[in-house]
Design brief:
alpha+beta; Beta-Lactamase; single chain; about 300 residues; about 10% strand; Cro/C1-type_HTH; 2 domains; 434 Repressor (Amino-terminal Domain); five-stranded antiparallel β-sheet
Length: about 300
Amino acid sequence: MVSRATLVGDYLRARRDATPPVAVGLAPDPNRRVPGLRREEVAAAAGISAEYYLRLEQGRDHQPSTQVLLALARALALDDTGRTYLLRLSEPAPPPPDPRTRTPDDPELRRLVARHDAPAFVADEVIGVVAANPLAAALSGSMRPGANRLVQMFTAMDRTIYPEWSRRAREMVAVFRMRADPADPRLVDIVGRLSVRDPDFAAAWASHDTRVFTTGPAYEVIPPFGLLEFECEDLGIPGRRGLTLTTLYAEPGSRAAAVIAFVREHLAHDVHPSLSPSLNPARPRSALGDLEHHDDPRDEHRGGDE
């Protein structure tokens, strides 16, 4: 298992390489050979010796003080998320979660997602779905218990239709890094499998970016309707370390809202909602309209005026 000191060193080195000198007030130098900061520049800005900073990057100091880490965060121009992540890396690994609180059979989680009229699911530290309400589970396999949304982003997502897939995939990797403990065996397994399989994931992971997501636009591929846009909200669950409640909201009058209405009506009548609407004679026309003719919502904005 990789030590916490090694993790701190890896993060410092990656952030140093990624920090342009101008970001910390250094004058441009046309003769500079590296795009990031030099070790001695970081050490001087943090008020520590270059020798001690080298020990930190090499993982040879196992107990750097909070004061030193905060000084390094300032020297590297880390944002609040990056600073929090650096401090967390230096702390002892948290105890593993109780597996009994991470299953779809957990009555509290079932009640939590059932309270929501919108699609809602609960994900753990490694963005694995552990509970979902029927609407979310019916809409997409990526929102069903047992699915891992990060893995599906890199293995099952059609990158040709997903808007800005590369940027959004890197953001999800940054969220994954921030949420999961680096010593978690599940993280180690996911990183190992995806790094070998996908160079895009390997590059995103090597960047050591961190991000906290709370709300924003989200896209889901919902068979047979294609790509739909939602507004996504993530909330931490009090008393459940590492668990996050995600809710998807659809703009009134949008195609996403019509699909949700369609699926909700079929669930109410115990009809499998994944059945293509063009094959279902009982489909609710008022909710569907011409949905079956639009696999990509961006088609609605394409026309002769382009």
